[in-house]
Amino acid sequence: MPEGQLFTVVEEGSVTSPIGFSAGGLHCGLKKTDRHDLGAIVCEVPAAAAAVYTTNVFQAAPIKVTRESIASSGKLRAVIVNSGNANACTGAQGEADAYTMRNAFADKIGVAHDEVAVASTGVIGELLKMDRVLGGIEKLPAVLEAGEQGAEDFSQAILTTDLVKKTIGVELTIDGKKVRIGGAAKGSGMIHPNMATMLGFVTTDASIEPDALQKLLRQVTDLSFNMITVDGDTSTNDMLVAMASGLAGNQTLTESHPAWEAFKAALTHVCVHLAKAIARDGEGATKLVEVRVEGAVSDESAQAIAKTIIGSSLVKSAVFGADANWGRIIAAVGRAGQPVNPDTVDIALGDIVTLRQSSPVAFDEDAALDYLKGDTVVISVQLHMNQGKAVAWGCDLTYDYVRINAAYRT
């Protein structure tokens, strides 16, 4: 590893990169196509576990089950996931089905019921076809493997309207031991900060206690998954689960450990990478949009402003149309409900400055048009108030977004 570099990205890294983890996926019949729709990650030892969940009041049945499992001991041996059906707003039967799904998989792999987490994604308000789910569970252990194929099949099994799988792996050295962190996620629509219609799964072979992992996961989520938006809708099923096998052999990580910040940086990189991949793969999207806010009164204020800009339908539409309409950006800044000096705002599109000290700057419209036609657009806002800063990610708003969501159930 180059001197001064905290971690490196693992080629073809995934949830099976850390020691102790296997994964797999298959088609059990929940989706109308033959794409995978049932998957699992399994750890060979009880893994320290942590999770964050959607803030939507109508939380899907699998979230209740997963909360209960993790609360039991702070450890997990597995997580089972289905796509094609959210098992949300399905009442007592949906809850019973989520427990049945958990218990059946636990029995199949020979672990305690409360050592398994459950996640679901797909259409809201429809009961799971449990005969198909249970049939898939019977076959699932046979496809679990620690190699790339198992990770690939799992990544495919969790997708809904996603166009691409989202995976990553990194490694670093702690106490002379190689430690790896892997991740996989899904998400494309119904995406908004404070978790989104996304599922995220992070694995590591680092030794860390559940409470420390939980605290760290919340901090990292606020810098990553909680800073993305596609359409302003927060789903019923959002969940990010982290599992740590401890098999790397390092001294147990705590905030006082010399490598704590390095591990935090590596975990942040994993989650930011997955979050940006979700934003780039937004339903109908043609480009990734990144909003950088600096000079705010605090980081929290900068986050609120960045989220407001990235969530603006007018800003997103202008980016899609390659229209350098900075007026939509400053309007979003002004309605974010945060302290702003209306006389000191700078705005730039990439390197093209459009506003300085809240006054228009003459710029090359053709150059701006060419820049906005690219597949990545960076909007920079400098407030000149204090040191607060934040970055948010999203995508443009296109005709295809409406087409996809107008016929989601059909």
Quickly describe the structure.
Helices cover about 30% and strands about 25% of the residues. With about 400 residues, the protein is an alpha+beta fold.
Key attributes of the depicted protein:
410 residues, alpha+beta, L-amino peptidase D-ALA esterase/amidase, Ubiquitin-like (UB roll), 9-stranded mixed sheet, 11 helices, 15 strands
What does this structure look like?
- With 410 residues, the chain is α+β, with helices and mostly antiparallel strands.
- It has two domains: 8-280, 4-Layer Sandwich (L-amino peptidase D-ALA esterase/amidase), CATH 3.60.70.12; 288-406, ArgJ beta chain, C-terminal domain (Ubiquitin-like (UB roll), Roll), CATH 3.10.20.340.
- It is 32% helix and 26% strand.
- The strands form two sheets. Strands 1, 2, 3, 4, 5, 6, 7, 8 and 9 form a nine-stranded mixed beta sheet that branches.
- Helix 5 packs across helix 6 (260-280).
- The model is unreliable at 189-196 (pLDDT under 50).
Q: What is the strand and helix layout of this fold?
A:
Elements: E1 8-9, E2 21-26, E3 38-53, H1 61-73, E4 75-83, H2 91-109, E5 116-121, H3 130-139, H4 148-157, E6 166-174, E7 177-186, E8 199-204, H5 210-223, E9 239-244, H6 260-280, E10 288-296, H7 299-310, H8 313-320, H9 326-334, E11 346-349, E12 352-356, E13 359-360, H10 365-372, E14 376-382, E15 388-395, H11 399-406
